[in-house]
Amino acid sequence: MQEVELLIFDLDGTLVDTRQDIANSVNHVLSQFGLPPKSMQDVIKNVGDGVHKLLARSLASELMDETEKAVSLFKAHYGNHLLDFSRCYPGVEEVLSHFENKKLAIISNKPEALTLEVAQGLKLASRFSHILGGDSLPTLKPSPEPLNHVMLATGTAPGKTIMIGDSPSDILAGRKAGTLTCAVTYGFRTNKQLAPTEPDYIISAISELRQIVI
Question: What is the SS3 assignment for 203?
């Protein structure tokens, strides 16, 4: 087990299952451009690197110039529907309670305002000292900058910090920042997709964190 002072969590696919609401909003955007809907599985393949890349990857190649319009449409729709189906994964509340004496933070690549709305709507926000979104700083994950920002703000060394997430961007950001890393396979990515990023730990349920961190 590792002695850790700061636990940094991704949001989508790590703390909260947001798949259906994200897919619904992406498909709303596609409908505005006269494009057919995508399956939830196909939409989620494009999640993890921020809203601009999500929409750019979702649009047809001939509509790449419409990405900014698509992002605006997505934000407007998603902002009104982000809690229609989204729920915390099983065990999240128990794990956060277990680590309530640790420093806790969320770093998401979702825009900050939407990240806060989800966290507040599901009554998670008060548990975290810092909540950053993809537009909180000049760069987003896999840049280590957001992690470095939170570690500096909380006075925590990389060796006493663990980054927990469901995407390669989470693990790569942690590795670049020098933190411990923990990949979760119950979210948007599989073990096969995450193992090549070489996380320190891979877990299939968030409750397993209690067997890793003290």
Answer: strand
